[in-house]
């Protein structure tokens, strides 16, 4: 598919075994369906890449949370941070994010600067552009073999993926 | 129902702007217009669609193009929907006579009595430059489709 993003790009937001089937997820951490998708994919034997699909129309929190995830990633805490957000989706206000950063023992002052900086903004903007170019029309958008699918992957979807691999 | 094809003149249509004024085929002239037909305000897929398309508006502006969302909902419902979504895409109502404009453009889904999921791009000359009808109302065209339509005008 022309313009399809690399399913396994270099970068910090990748988890799972190197030789597991790659799954690229464009998501918004405030989106309940994305949270469900993360829960399912994190517990599956896949190589999961997260990229942000933050839409301005959804208000300021998705962007704030994406910035926080980027900042956590710079201190090697992207996945623990995302896992914690998914586990407590109602706790994403700034004081909650600071508390979470402290719990994960990351430098809160640095975290707070990093999440608002241009580097984080550039990553978030690039992810959005790539996601839309790939054909994402909502969240979660999962790119598999260059094809975009939307929705929360269920057990059958994961089983089929593993069987194909 | 077949969607209106590229090269066709837009037939006489009358939709309602958000302020209740008429929007006709004459309002399509002078700049590129992307008409986004969606089935119902507040339906889940439509929610995603307009929020995603909102990201395209700066790109459209650079190309002297404007986007309108069209459905058979009444303007009051469309405005509430737009406010809920946090989008600025202008809404055009095809409420009464229900679906007349959408039928004229081949963008009406008779089995469900609603606007179909379709895109129609009209060039500054008022003629259709490109169109797309989704294979089902549940299928949402990505922004690549809108870009394809804009490219048809530029080309």
Account of the 3D structure:
- The complex is a heterodimer of chains A (165) and B (155).
- A 5-stranded mixed β-sheet of chain A has the order 1-3-2-4-5, with helices on both faces.
- Chain A contains 7 helices and 5 strands, in the order E-E-H-E-H-H-H-H-H-E-E-H.
- Chain A is globular and about 45 Å long.
- With 165 residues, chain A is an alpha+beta fold.
- Helix content of chain A is 48%, strand content 13%.
- Chain A has a single domain (23-164), classed as Glutaredoxin.
- The model of chain A has no long low-confidence stretch (mean pLDDT 91).
- With 155 residues, chain B is of the alpha/beta class.
- The two termini of chain B are 27 Å apart.
- Chain B has a single domain (17-116, 131-154), classed as Glutaredoxin (3-Layer(aba) Sandwich), CATH 3.40.30.10.
- Chain B has helices spanning 44-54, 57-62, 75-85, 100-104, 143-154; strands at 14-16, 22-24, 32-37, 65-71, 90-93, 108-109, 114-115, 118-122, 128-133.
- The relative contact order of chain B is 0.24.
- In chain B, a hairpin with a 4-residue loop joins strand 6 (108-109) and strand 7 (114-115).
- Helices cover 29% and strands 25% of the residues of chain B.
- The radius of gyration of chain B is 14 Å and the shape is globular.
- The interface between A and B is medium-sized, with 16 and 17 residues.
Which value, in Å, is the CA radius of gyration of chain B?
14 Å
How far is the N terminus from the C terminus of chain A?
19 Å
Relative strand content of chain B: 15-25%
Please tally the β strands of chain B and state the result.
Answer: 9
Give the largest interface pair and sizes. A-B, 16 and 17 residues
The CATH superfamily of chain A is Glutaredoxin
As laid out across the biggest beta sheet of chain B, the strand order is 5-4-3-8-9
Q: Quick one: overall form of chain A?
A: globular
Uncertain runs of chain A: none
Whole-number total of structural domains of chain A: 1
Structural class of chain B comes to alpha/beta
The major pleated sheet of chain B works out as: 5 strands, mixed
Strand order in the sheet with the most strands of chain A: 1-3-2-4-5
Contiguous helical run count of chain A: 7
Architecture (CATH level 2) name of chain A: 3-Layer(aba) Sandwich
For the record, the CATH architecture of chain B stands as 3-Layer(aba) Sandwich
Domain module count of chain B? 1
Name of the CATH superfamily of chain B: Glutaredoxin
Give the C-level CATH assignment of chain B: Alpha Beta
**CATH topology value of chain B:** Glutaredoxin
CATH class of chain A: Alpha Beta
